Amino acid sequence: MSITLVSSIFVYNKNYNKDNIIPYTLFLKHLNNGLVKEVYLNDTPKIKIVLDNNNELLTDNPRTEGFKEALLMHGVDVIEKNQIENQILPLLILISLAFTLVYFRKNISKQAEKEMASMSVIENSDYSTQIGFKDVAGNKEAKASLGEIIDYIKNPEIYKEFGVRLPRGVLLYGSPGTGKTLLAKAVAGEANVPFYPVSGSDFVQVYAGLGASRIRDLFKKAKEAGKSVIFIDEIDCIGKKRRNNGISGSEEGDRTLNALLAEMSGFKENEGIVVVAATNRIDVLDEALLRPGRFDRQVEVELPDINARYEILKLHSKNKPLSNEVDLKKLAAETIYFSGAKLENLLNEAAMFAIRVKAKRITNEHINKAYYKVLVGDEKLDRSYITNKDKEITAYHEAGHALIAKLIDKTNRVTKVSIIPSTSGVGGFSLNIPEEKMYKTKKDLYSNIMIALGGRAAEEIVFGKDNITTGASSDLEKATDIALSLVGNLGMDDDFGLINLNVLMSKDIRENKKIVMRTKEILEELYEETIEILIKSRALLDKMSNELIIRETLYENDINRICSSFEAA
Ligand code: ADP
Ligand code: ZN
Asked: Residue 549 contacts by C-beta under 8 Å, 6 or more apart in sequence?
C-alpha cells in the first residue's frame, strides 16, 4: 500500500491540543450515535467538531464529496468558514521533528478501538492506595500545595478550631501525563484514606439523568467512608464553559455539572473529604467550577524540567537493570518536553527491547530504539521495497532540516536524523533540541520557520522545482502556524505592530486578508534565505545525505563531525 511520497510533519510538542484529536473512525461512531452537534467544514487537514456535550475535538478532514450531505442527513449543523485556525502559539515550543510520511496508516481502526476501550477504564471502585509522594518525582510546587490538603484530611479538627476554611476542591491542571492522577492517588495514600476515582468522559454518553445520579452516588459512597479523596479526571468533559447566551448545547451535561456543584456545596465543613479534579485545559472550564467553595485551589502540574526529568528517570529505572554506559543525566537533557508518562514509557520500551534480544542489561542501543519508538512508532522491519530514489529524497529532505538548524545557529543541537520509516507511516525525521528557556524570541521563531522549510528547500535545490514532493506538507503547516502567530498574535511584525488577530476576528474587522498576505511574505522571504544557505553549503548537504543513505540514522556526534569537517576545510 505504498502511497506516493512523503508528507512531512514537524511535530512541535504542543501540549494543548493533542488530546483533542480523535481518529476519524471514532468520529464516525459519534456521528452514528447522534452525538455530533456541529462540524466546521474547511480545507484544513483537520476539522473541528463539536459534540452534544460541547466538547470540541479535531479529526481528520476526509475531503470527500458526499461528506457535507452525510452530515446534514445526520442532523449535524455544518459551519462552512474558511476560518484561519488561530491558535495562539505557545511560547514554549519545539522539539522539532521532521517526519516524512511514506505510507498510510493501517492501524487506525485498531487505534480507535483502543481509544474506545480506554475511555472508561476508570471505574467507580473504592480502594485506598499505597501510592505516596515518594512515587512522584519532581512536581515540587504541586506537592507543597497538596501537603496542606493532606494535613487537613488528617486533622480537620485543628483547622476547624482555628476557623480556617480549606478548599473543598483542588483542581490539578497541566499537560497530559504530567502526573496529575498520580498526585491525586498520592494525596489519598499519604492521608491514608480511600480513593474514589471517576473520569469525566464516563459521563459523556450516558442517558438522561444518569450522569447526575452517578455523581450523587459517588458522593454518597465517599461520605459513608468518612474521610476520603474523590478524584474526577477529565473534569472538562462535564465542566465546559456554557455558551455566551447562557444556553448550553447539552442539558444533560449541565445537569451533571449542577449535581456536582450541589454535592460540593452540600459538604459539611471539615468533614475531611476532598475532591481533586484534573484537566489538561483549565481555560475551557466553566467559571462556576472555580468559585470559592468549589475548586478554589488550582495547582498547575507542569512538564518536568531537566532536573525533574532526571529524577523521574531515576525513579523509573530503579527496578530495571541499566548498563553502566547509560547516562541518565544526558538522557534527561535530550528529553525536553517529555512528560513523566513519556519518560516512563521510554524506559519501559527500552527494557522490552533488551528482553527481546536477550540482553543482560539495558544499553544505550535499547534506549535509542525506544526513543525512536516513543516518538514515531515501531521501525519498519522490511525496508526492501523502498526505492533508492525514495531513500535519496528522504535523505536530502531530512538533511535539509538538520543542516539549516546547525548552520543558522551553532548552539542548536541536532541529536538525531533518521530515514528509517516507521510502521505508523513516518518516513524519517530530524530531531533538534532547542535550548531550554522560558521564552522564545522573534529570532528563535524565524529560525524555527527556516528549520521547518529546510526540507523543502533541499528538495528543490537538488531535484529541481518540478520535483518537489508532498513531503513538506506538515512542515509548511508548522511554518505557516508560526509565521501567522508572529504577525497576528505575538506583536512581532513591524508592519502590523501590536495588533491581535483574535480581537480582529471577534469583532469581525477585516484585516484578515492583509495578515494572510503578510504571513505569506514572511514565509517567502525566509524560504529564499533558507535556499541560499543550502546552496552555499551544497557540498555539506551532499555529504550528510550520503551518510544518511548509507547509515540510515545519524546521531549528534556524527552530525557535528560532518559539519566541523567542512568548517576546517
Ligand atoms: P496525568 O494524570 O497528568 O495525565 P498520570 O498521573 O496518569 O498523568 O501519569 C501517568 C504515568 O506517568 C504515571 O503512572 C507514572 O508512571 C508516570 N509519571 C508521570 N509523572 C510522573 C512523576 N512526576 N513522577 C513519576 N512518575 C510520573
Ligand atoms: Zn520535513
From this structure: 391, 392, 395, 419
State pLDDT tens for residues 234-270: 999 888 776 544 444 567 677 888 889 888 888 776 6
Around ion ligand 2, residues with a beta carbon closer than 5 Å are 8, 98, 455, 475
Query: Ligand 1, from 129, 182, 234, 317: best to mutate by most atoms within 8 Å of Cβ?
Result: 182
- Which residues lie with the beta carbon below 6 Å from any ligand 1 atom? 136-139, 176-182, 278, 312, 315, 340-341, 344
The pTM assigned to this predicted structure is 0.67
Atom of ligand 1 nearest to the CA of 185: 6
Question: Is 70:223 a contact under the CB 8 Å cutoff?
Answer: no
Alpha helices in 156-294 (DSSP H): 156-161, 180-191, 210-225, 251-265
- Locate the DSSP E strands across 412-536: 413-418, 429-433
Grid cell digits, residue 553:
540514522
Spell out the domains of the chain, with CATH numbers in brackets: 2-88 (3.30.720.210), 133-300 (3.40.50.300), 306-376 (1.10.8.60), 388-568 (1.20.58.760)
Residue among 281, 188, 191 nearest 234 (CA): 281
Residue in 192, 287, 274, 278 with CA at minimum distance from that of residue 233: 278
